[in-house]
Design brief:
The structure holds 2 protein chains of 2 kinds. Chain A is of the alpha/beta class. In chain A, about 35% of the residues lie in helices and about 25% in strands. The chains are: A alpha/beta, B mainly alpha. Chain A: One of its GO terms (molecular function) is ATP hydrolysis activity.
């Protein structure tokens, strides 16, 4: 098998909220077109780490980050980095479905509108493609101009994913995307993510060990700000190297 | 009677307390309702007397432009045309709201999106202070600063709708601003995060998402400001010139419903046509306040539906 291409590399990433050290030197690389799951108990730093990848932590006052994170070899924390451009390449889906209080159509094309796209045909096409990719086109195609807030939670989350896909990012970050949803909606989203793997690099924070084992290629286990273990998902779940990983995935704590 | 049955039938202490509380609040609320209804009834009975007792035509009251209730025109009808005051009131109200809105929205964005710290530490107290200044002070500043300034620039006396607009603009600005701030603060944080995560700049996030989501709240604030401007009497009376004439331009002396009321009500005899005609103006004022209130409720409801 050919060596997979690395798209994001991070080395020695420390993050402080004020004086509190939330990430204690993370070294973690992500391959292109793979799904990586970040697991660990609450407060272990996995979501914080995820948010460093598209610099969403910049919005929180009093955060200090050291170390380097590179996207395709370019340090995203370099002073010359264009954060707006970075976030177009590294999209993010949040835990709570958060569509804008606009129509479904307007939600999906939000990113294109920002880029100044005005051509109606291009917008229509983007809406159809993205909603199909997000496996929700059939459910909403007849009422694209209804408010996105009238949809169910699972549908809203898929619209949010379509909204990210419309921007055509390289990497999609998902912060516990199904933890607020029912099992059926969760399964739909998991299947959809598997379908997106060929075109995108997906990094997913999840509290569900089952979800991580079902859909991810690699898994990273975080504990109290440290990366304990990073390996192929199958290997980690069948044969964890570290004692802490074993304790966590067998449910002895967390 | 057996003791259990007796205990069950007797009212417990907390049930009694509950009943007492309900009674007290019911009495208070009925008192308020009675007062409001009484005011409406009183103003309406006085205000409608102009039309029923003095046989003034409602249409000519609203559309004629000569206000001189003690004189009669060529046909022997009293001259009670309220159009100049209606135009004056709506003029100052809309103009001041139009000028105040961009300032209020700008200040609101600064206080919520750009610099919360400065906004909370300095602007918030300043705005609260502005609300607390009595209207006579605003009127006095208008009289001694704004009116001479307008006189200097445009000539004439300086009194008029423009001076009234300026004074009202400063008076309603804090109301509209603080309600705009509330509306912007109520926009959930996750809309901002979602927008930024899609590669929006801060400014794109503000005008494409935050402002859009806050529109019902901002509109409510503007209408509140307009209601305040419409009902303001003293400050306006001091700078508008109090000439019951249809204003020719923004710097000619004019009058509003409130200014005619405050300057005229003490000089008329109860029950006379002059007095009744003023009550009709008061009724008009009351109905307009009601209309503003209904508008605010309607906007609020519309905003809820969109959420």
């Amino acid at each position: 098998m050919a060596e997979a291409q690395k798209i994001i590399t991070s080395s020695d990433v420390h993050l402080f909220y004020g004086k509190f050290e939330a990430l204690k030197g993370i070294n973690l690389d992500f391959n292109q077109h793979e799904i990586t799951a970040l697991i660990g108990p609450s407060g272990c730093g996995k979501s914080t780490y995820l948010r460093t990848l598209n610099r969403m932590n910049d919005l929180i006052p009093d955060v200090t980050i050291t170390g380097t994170i590179s996207l395709r070899g370019q340090n995203i924390y370099a002073p010359s980095e264009d954060v707006v451009q970075l976030r177009k390449q590294v999209g993010m889906v949040f835990q709570q479905p958060n569509p804008f209080p606009f129509s479904i159509y307007e939600n999906v094309i939000y990113g294109l509108r920002l880029a100044g796209v005005k051509d109606k045909r291009e917008l229509d096409e983007a809406v159809e493609t993205s909603l199909k990719q997000a496996a929700i086109w059939d459910e909403v195609k007849d009422h694209l101009h209804d408010s996105a807030l009238s949809l169910s939670g699972g549908q809203q989350q898929r619209v949010c994913i379509a909204r990210v896909l419309a921007v055509k990012p390289d990497v999609i970050l998902l912060d516990e995307p199904t933890s607020a949803l029912d099992p059926i909606s969760s399964t739909q989203i998991e299947n959809m993510l598997l379908g997106l793997r060929d075109q995108y690099t997906i990094i997913l924070v999840t509290h569900s060990m089952h979800q991580a084992s079902r859909i991810s290629d690699k898994t990273a286990f975080f504990l109290t700000g440290n990366l304990i273990e990073f390996a192929d998902t199958k290997q980690m779940f069948l044969n964890p190297k570290e004692k802490e990983t074993e304790d966590y995935i067998t449910g002895r704590f967390g | 009677m057996d003791p259990i049955r007796e205990a069950m039938l007797k009212k417990s202490h907390s049930a009694k307390l509950e009943r007492r509380g309900k009674t007290i609040s019911l009495v208070c609320i009925s008192l308020i309702v009675i007062v409001v209804v009484a005011i409406f009834f009183f103003v309406a009975s006085k205000g409608l007397a102009t039309f029923f007792q003095n046989k003034i035509n409602l249409w000519s009251f609203l559309t004629k432009s000569v206000w001189n209730p003690s004189m009669k025109d060529a046909h022997g009808n009293p001259e009670v045309g309220a159009l100049p005051m209606i135009v004056g009131s709506f003029g100052v109200t809309f103009l001041s709201a139009i000028i105040a809105t961009p300032f209020a929205v700008g200040a609101g964005i600064f206080m919520t999106e750009i610099s919360r710290k400065w906004g909370q530490k300095i602007l918030q107290p300043v705005i609260e202070l502005l609300v607390g200044i009595p209207s006579v002070v605003y009127g006095f500043i208008g009289l001694s600063v704004v009116v001479p300034f307008i006189r200097h620039i445009f000539g004439g006396t300086g009194f008029g709708i423009l001076a009234g607009t300026f004074v009202l603009f400063v008076m309603i600005l804090p109301t509209v601003t603080s309600m705009t701030v509330d509306a912007l603060k109520a926009v959930p944080r996750h809309y901002r995060e979602a927008s930024l995560a899609l590669g929006a700049t801060r400014w794109q996030t503000i005008y494409r998402v935050v402002l859009r989501a806050a529109i019902p709240g901002i509109l409510t604030g503007i209408v509140f400001g307009m209601a305040r401007a419409f009902g303001e009497a003293l400050a306006v009376q001091m700078v508008i010139g109090n000439a019951a004439l249809l204003p020719k331009n923004l710097v000619s002396p004019a009058s509003t419903l409130t200014s005619v009321l405050t300057s005229g009500i003490g000089n008329t005899v109860m029950g006379s046509l002059e007095n009744n005609a003023l009550w009709s103006l008061a009724l008009l004022l009351l109905l307009m306040s009601l209309a503003f209130n209904l508008l605010i409720r309607w906007i609020g409801k519309k905003g809820e539906l969109n959420k």
